[in-house]
Structure formats: structure tokens, C-alpha cells
Amino acid sequence: MRRTRLNVVPPVSKEVALGQVIDGDKVMSLPAHVPHKSTAVEDVQVVRESRTSRVRRLQEEARALAREQISEFEVLIDATAKMALEIADGGEVYSIGAREICRRLADELPRTLQTLQVISKKN
């Protein structure tokens, strides 16, 4: 069997000018000028925040997060005090050492919570 040689790309004898593209047998012209599309960043006016105002804003954000964390901690202390009281009053099911520790915590944690609430109201 005899093999024939196939040219994958047909020879082009046409002269191609600048700004033209060859697509198979056809010569196509490209647009002379492609308009620049603006990006979203260019469309939005960026308002620069001064360093001083940025520092103030970040400090206020940090203070708000600190207040939120203290508030969550107060809820946890209250829940711990209630659970400690339940264990202290739980009777013989719990060991004597566990009941005694929980009795002390049940007495101490409400005062600690009140102190923390007074301190956090000052700030």
C-alpha cells in the first residue's frame, strides 16, 4: 500500500497585511482599535481613609469585640455557677470532694460575676 503525504496546513500564497488574520483560506481583518473596557476597580472611586481615622476605627472594633467576649464569658460563669450548685446539692451520687469544690464555686462565682459586670460597665 502506498502512503500519500497530506499537508495539514494548505500553502498560502496571499500576502497578508498588518492587522489581518488567516483563517483557513480566508483572510480576515482585525478591528483597527479595540476600545479599552474599564474595570470595576476603575469605576469605583476609592476613598482613602486617613491613618488616624483607621486606627480609631480599628480600636473601636477591638473594644466592641472585647465587650462581646466579656459578655459571653459572663454567661458562661453564670451557667457554671448554676451547674456547680446542682452538683453540690446532688447528694451521694457525686463524690464528697466534687460536691465540696462545687459548693465553693457556687458561692464564689456569683460574686465574681458581679465584680466582672461592674468592671465591664466602667469601660
Provide a descriptive summary of the structure in words.
The chain is mainly α and 123 residues long. Helix content is 56%, strand content 7%. The protein contains three helices and two strands, in the order ββααα. The protein has helices spanning 40-43, 51-88, 96-122, and strands at 20-23, 26-29. The protein has a two-stranded antiparallel ribbon. A hairpin with a 2-residue loop joins strand 1 (20-23) and strand 2 (26-29). The longest helix is centred in the middle third of the chain and has 38 residues, at 51-88.
In short:
By secondary structure, this protein is mainly α.
Give short descriptive properties of this protein.
elongated; 2 strands; 123 residues
Number of E-type strands: 2
Structural class: mainly alpha
| Helix and strand element order | EEHHH
Mean pLDDT: 80
Write the layout of secondary structure elements.
Elements: E1 20-23, E2 26-29, H1 40-43, H2 51-88, H3 96-122
Antiparallel strand pairs: 1-2
